[in-house]
Amino acid sequence: MRHLFLSTALLLSSATAQVTIFSIPALPPGMTAPSQPPAQSNPATPAGPVQKVEIQEVEVTSPVSTGTSPTVASEDVGEVSIPLRATDKDGRPVAGVSIDWEVKNTGKAPVYVISSQSGGAEQLLGTTIAPGETWKGTTTTGPDGITALLLNAAASTAAALKVTGPTGEVKNLREAAQTIDWIGE
């Protein structure tokens, strides 16, 4: 067992005393003592069953990607994130909701599915959707009730999304099916 030895000197007005403390157990390697006690937190009220799932965008128009790798996230101007949120009847986020995505390329150039994101985690997909083709995938909402799909295009094209959750077909904030148009050269 490892021990930590502390020695301290106390200065008193006319005398000096030295106190040595032996055999205080040290923390195991890699552990550090907390700087303050953990804060008391009130447990969150659990969310109820899913009442609403909604795409958090409206129809999107974006410039085409200028990057050389359209299937890799690079914060390029052509990248479009489509987030959706699942909530209960009180508007609280619901985690673990399975969402089915269908992305149909309705344009004349490829559309790229880069990744999906949920709860701070990203799943790389790197899929190319040829004109007229449809990609299908499933994601799950994170603790914040949100999941998102990241799309991209390197030339003028368009995509239509059909998203389905436990409440049926998911619409956007305008109560419409989600579309994306990439405009460029």
UniProtKB/TrEMBL annotation:
Keywords of this protein's UniProt record, alphabetized? Signal
Signal listed as a keyword: yes
Highest taxon, organism lineage = Bacteria
Q: Where is the signal peptide?
A: 1-19
Name used for this protein in its record: DUF4352 domain-containing protein
